[in-house]
Amino acid sequence: MDNVMFTLNEENLHEEDEKEIKYKSPPARGTRTRIRSRSLSQSSQDGAESFSSTSYTGSSSDEEDINPRDKDQQNSQGFKSFCVRNIEQHAFGRREVEIAEQEMPGLMALRKRAEEDKPLQGAKIIGCTHITAQTAVLIETLAALGASVRWSACNIYSTQNEVAAALAEAGFSVFAWKGETEEDFWWCIDRCINAENWQPNMIIDDGGDATHLMLKKYPATFNMIKGIVEESVTGVHRLYQLSKSGKLTVPAMNVNDSVTKTKFDNLYLCRESIIDALKRTTDVMFGGKQVLVCGYGEVGKGCAAALKGLGCIVSATEIDPLCALQACMDGFRVVKLNEVVRQIDILITCSGNKNVVTREHLDRLKNGCIVCNMGHSNTEIDVGSLRTPDLTWEKVRSQVDHIIWPDGKRIILLAEGRLVNLSCSSVPSFVVSITASTQALALIELFNAPPGRYKQDVYLLPKKMDEYVASLHLPTFDAHLTELSDEQAKYLGLNKAGPFKPNYYRY
Questions:
Q1: How far apart are CA 1 and CA 67, in angstroms?
Q2: Which DSSP string do the residues of 78-116 spell out, in sequence order?
C-alpha cells in the first residue's frame, strides 16, 4: 500500500453510505512537495478547499520540507515498520512519556494490576487517536497487557513528533507526524490496517476515521473485528448511524458518554487547557474581554468557567433549553451569535455541529478577534469560506494565522479551526489518565466477552467500570471512601461494593 494514496469525498458528513474513497497515483518518490494542510479527518472534510487561491505567507524548516514518507528510517534495533518525522528525537520523547507516567496514576495502577494476567493477550489493536505523551502511556500499557498495536493520528496537528519517535524506537508501528497532508493522513491509517501477516481484531478510535476506512476499504477485515472503542462525539454519532442503518456488524463501546469521559475529560480537561492554548498562541490578556462560547455542554461549561475566573465577560449560545438554563443559572448570558458578533473579542466553538460560525459571521467580527474551536471536528468554523482571493492569510507562528480583509481588518484564527487545545497546547495528564483507563477497560471487556454478551450494536460502559476507574485515581488525593453498613446498603437497595447509582442517574 506504499504506492497508493487516496482522498475521501462526501456529500454529507453524517451519511455514511454516500462516502466514497477515490484513489490516485502518487508522485515519483523524492519529488513530493510540501502541501499546506487543508482538511484532515473524514469528520472534517466539509467545505475544504485548496489554498491555491489564497495569499499565504510563512516559512518552514528544511526538516519540515521533507515528507517523512520520503525518508528511509529505522530505530536502533533495525525496526522499520513506522513513519515519523524524525526518529532521532526519541530520547526527548521518552523523557516526556516518563513525565506523563508520573501524572497518570490510574493507568499505571491498571498496568501493574493486570500485567501478570495479560487480559489482552492475542489482541491486535488498530489505534487512531491523538498521539501525545499520554497516549504513549496508554499504548505501552496495552502492550504490557499482552496486546499488539499499530497506531496513527486522528488529527494532523496534535501529534507530538518526539513522542511518536519514542514509540517507534520502542518497537511500535506508529505512522504519524505533526502537519500531515490529507493524503498523508489516510495513508497512515491505511498502513496501520493493511500490514503483512498481521490481522487486526480490535479498534480504538477517536473520530471514527479508522472505523470508516476499514469498513469501506477492507469490509472482510472489519467483519472479523471483535469490538470498537470510540471516545469522541463525532465518532459515536457515526456508530449510532451505522447501527441504525444495519451496517454495524461488530459490537462497539461508547466511551464518550461514560461518566469518566463526560464529567472529567470534557469538563475538567477543557477548563484548564483552553487557557493554556489561548495564552501560548496569542499572549492575550483575559481580564475584561468579551467571550462567546458556542455550546454549553460539558466542554462549554469548562471553557466558560475558566474564562470567567480570569475576568472575562462570558456569554453562551445554545439550542437546548436545559443547557441554556444551566448557563443562565451559572451566571452567563445566553445569546444568539448574530446579536453579539460585532462586540466579542474571543469566539470559541464547542458544539459538535457544523457551520456554527459562517463567513457572514466572520465578516462581521471586530478587528483582532480571536477565533478557535474546542470541538473534535473542524466543521464548526467555516474555514473553507476564508480561502478566497480577497483575503490574505498571514502565518504569525505555528498554528496561528492572521486572516486579513481588504479594508485592513484581521482576525486571529487558531489551528485552522481544528481542536485548539491538542493542536496548540498541552493537556493535563491526570485527566487523560481517567479517560485512557476507561478506554483500556473497554478494550479488555469487549475482547474477553463471551459470545452473545454484546451484539452488533453500540453499548455504554458498565457503571461498575466507571466506578472502578474513579477508584484507581482516588489514592492520589489521599481520598478515603466511606463504606456502607449492611443495614445502610439494604436500606438503599445497593450492593456494598457498587454500583452505587442507577444507569439513569445524572452526575
A1: 17
A2: -----B-S-GGGHHHHHHHHHHHHHT-HHHHHHHHHHTT
Question: String of b and e for 224-243 (b: at least 16 CB within 10 Å)?
Answer: ebbbbbbbbbbbbbbbebbb
With contact defined as beta carbons under 8 Å apart, do 413 and 367 qualify? Answer: no
- CA 125 vs CA 154, 197, 199, 443: distances in Å: 15, 14, 9, 9
Angle (nearest 5°) at CA 459 between 458 and 462: 170
Whether 293 and 304 have beta carbons less than 8 Å apart is answered as yes
Buried b / exposed e over 327-346, threshold 16 CB at 10 Å, is: beeeebebbebeeebeebbb
Question: How many CB atoms sit inside 10 A of residue 376's CB?
Answer: 27
Quick: pLDDT tens for 255-267.
998 888 888 888 8
Higher pLDDT, 21 or 206: 206
Q: Whole-angstrom Cα distance, residue 324 to residue 216?
A: 39
* Dist CA 26 CA 311 (whole Å): 52
Contact between residue 376 and residue 207 where contact means Cβ atoms under 8 Å apart? yes
DSSP 470-497: HHHHGGGGT--PPPPPHHHHHHHT--TT
3-state helix/strand/coil string of 50-80: CCCCCEEECCCCHHHHCCHHHCCCCCCCCCC
Helix (H) or strand (E) segment spanning residue 278: helix 270-282
Coil, strand or helix: which one is 438?
A: helix
Q: What backbone torsions phi and psi does residue 501 show, to the nearest 5 degrees?
A: -135, 145
> For residue 462, what pLDDT band results from cuts at 50, 70 and 90?
confident
37's grid cell: 494542510
